[in-house]
Design goal:
With 150 residues, the chain is an all-alpha fold. It has four helices and two strands; from the N terminus they run ββαααα. Strands 1-2 form a two-stranded antiparallel ribbon. The N and C termini lie far apart (99 Å).
């Protein structure tokens, strides 16, 4: 146990790292679902992702002063234990950086898709307005026929 006074830093940090790893996998899957326009799958994944974030939040809440305790006590841990914890923390930070990059890429893709959809809707709206401008509301339907034999 890599702890001082009851806090098992190694286990807590390893759990946090595992959550970050799973979060990265989910972010990558989320991007694939957005690319494939699989919005039903995306909603299901977002629900799972929210539950994972809830577990991560619970972990943080169960040890509200974890980071302060870590700063105060890390120098008193055996060198190997401190090194292991620092390695785990570094791996977690790297995973979170990858999650952020993946999330940004997904956000950019969703933004591009939204903008394209908005442009298509505007084009359709302009077409409807053009059609309305040329429609003769006063003429009866019979006046709209063209007699090619005349």
């Amino acid at each position: 146990m890599l702890s001082t006074e009851g806090i098992d830093f190694s286990t807590i940090f390893a759990t946090r790292r595992e959550y970050c790893r799973i979060l990265l996998e989910m972010s990558r899957r989320q991007f694939e679902l957005v690319q494939n326009a699989d919005y039903a799958g995306l909603l299901e994944l977002l629900g799972r992702k929210q539950r994972l974030l809830g577990r991560l939040d619970q972990l943080n809440q169960s040890h509200p002063d974890l980071w302060e305790q870590w700063r105060q006590r890390r120098d008193y841990l055996p060198a190997e234990a401190r090194s292991r914890c620092e390695r785990i923390l570094k791996e977690s930070e790297d995973l979170l950086a990858q999650v952020l990059a993946q999330e940004k890429q997904g956000t950019d893709l969703l933004t591009a898709q939204r903008d394209a959809t908005q442009q298509q809707l505007e084009t359709i709206a302009q077409g409807i307005q053009t059609q309305e401008a040329y429609r003769d509301h006063l003429a009866p339907a019979t006046h709209r026929r063209l007699d090619v034999n005349q």
